[in-house]
Amino acid sequence: MMEMTKKTLSGLRYEDFRSECEGCPTGLYVLRNESGMEVCLTNLGGIVLSVMVPDRDGNMDNVVLGADSLEKAGTLARDWYIGALIGPVAGRILDGKFRVDGKDFALPLNSVPNTLHSGDAGLHTVIWDAEQTADNSVCLRYRYKDGEAGFPGNMDISVTFTVTEDNALRIDYHATTDSPTLFCPTHHGYFNLDGIKKPMSSIENHQIEIDSDFYLPTDINTNHTGEILKVEGTPFDFREMRTIGERIGDNHIQLQYGKGYDHVFVLRKHEPKELTHAARLRSRHSGRVMDVFTTEIGMVMYTGNYLDGVEGIDDAVYTRRCALCLETQCFPDTPNNLHFPSVELLPGNEYSQTCIYKFSTEP
Ligand code: G6D
């Protein structure tokens, strides 16, 4: 069958992603392993469009909010960061201002009074050079020119997506710079282990365990206060498996500020950059389980509190809390919280992060 009309397991068509933006070609990249897991992504924004994994009965469903055309993928990434790579700096930067190497910078405020996810020229909007190196792996590369997104330094960035034989989506980030800058990327996938279909189930029925004893509270603008608080005795205590909806409506100021969970959890590490288990998410309905591992110190759990019924794929409508993000990253807004681990990237150093989303099932 000609590639033009061939569809992926998730129902996507190559021609719906083949285009050219500002002289840069775009396309659809399909990663598979021997047991049938399939991940589709486009080099626009590094957007993951679908992740097909089995439920307890072997039924394959897509478990991430995605898009079935380049235009829709771009719109959903611009408005909701759905499936996209985020950077150079994930999260909010207070007033968009930061200092690096003794110089002051001010980014456009795309989420007043802050800059969110590096603003409108962030990694979620760029066309990456893509090289599919194997049936199960693609490497995306991008060179940020000095000042292109308001950050200093010519940054060479690579992100490799790999589908492993043990049914995991592995993401490896690397970056270097020719002058001091900031770098703190993440992947902004929205997961629902019951599948993306009409009608969407709520992730409030999912259960999660997070390997964290502390979280980072915010103010009313979801700016970080700089505090590092214990989860013990709060609705943020997921040291044991808990249902997400059990306490999401509690009268807790942080849940009010975030309109649900939209917070960074501090992950347990014996040493920096140690690859450790961060969370286990599961649906008792589908029997799907997703374990998250990362070398990073932080993980945002965002329960899709702002989704407002945007049209998705397969007739699904992306409503509030129909999916959740588990964004592994550095601490946010570190230039304005100097006691947080720095996200400065200096010439001669290399940033690296490994993040693994491993899928399995249980009876
Ligand atoms: C909200 O605060 C959240 C962010 O964490 C999220 O990335 C965005 O919605 C989509 O601004």
* Uncertain segments: none
The amount of helix comes to under 10%
Output the strand order for the largest sheet.
12-13-14-15-31-25-24-19-22
Distance between the termini: 38 Å
Shape: globular
State the CATH class of the largest domain. Answer: Mainly Beta
Rg computed from alpha carbons, rounded to a whole number of angstroms: 19 Å
Instruction: Report on the biggest sheet.
Output: 9 strands, antiparallel
- Hey, roughly how much beta strand do the residues contain? 35-45%
* Structural class estimated from helices and strands: mainly beta
In CATH, the architecture of the largest domain is: Distorted Sandwich
Query: On the 0-100 scale, what is the average pLDDT?
Result: 96
Total helices: the number is: 2
Overall tally of domains: 2
**Heteromolecules bound:** alpha-D-quinovopyranose
Q: Provide the CATH topology of the largest domain.
A: Beta-galactosidase, Chain A, domain 5
The total beta strand count reads: 31
